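Session log. Operator J.P. requested a structure for one protein chain; no other inputs attached. Running the standard single-chain path with token output.
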Amino acid sequence: MSNVATSTEALGAELLRVMLVDDHDLFRTGLRNLLEEQGVHIVAEAPDGSVALSLVRELAPDVVVMDLNMPGMNGIEATREITRLAPLTRVVVLTISDQDGDVMDAILAGACGYLMKDSSIQDLMQGIRAASLGESLISPHIASKVLQRIRASSVDAAGGITGAELSDRENEVLRLIANGKDNAEIARDLHISPKTVKNHISNILMKLQIENRIQAAVYAVRSGLV
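Structure written below.
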């Protein structure tokens, strides 16, 4: 049974086309080897944001694993451009920076995940899979910093979106998203199916006109739901 499960996981990973963006060759090589051991198909590597943007246009990868601090076009700028030009390509930030400004800038640029470079390969795989499904994953202590920053800031990080008509159930789901719950946990808390949770999240994102659940969490805090 375990062999079947492992094979199924590997098959799912093989279907993921991933691009690595980092200005350190040795780090990219090591990361590529680790991800390929997990069955991920690495379609390209880039040393900076401008090269990454060109490759995204050409190859349309499912997920881009993006460093932030690079010469030339940095990861924030590249993430913003990729989100605008190739919305089906998801970006997961993988960086050494846990600075509030970098986290917020990456999220508002459209990143679907924010992980530290000391994360485990399992955490990174989880982040890549989540991003490929349109979901989000950020390191727990980063999530805490984001919410603290939003609460303390007077800047409208939700992009000025107000007055969205969400149902009571959608507000419940949004509140749980902002509290860091994943889809399975939300389903358990509300006694509904994971598929129903996904449908609610899709409706929330559409109504709020935002890209991902991290931005939804920002909106929830701004709106006083948490």
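Operator note: The mean pLDDT is 82.
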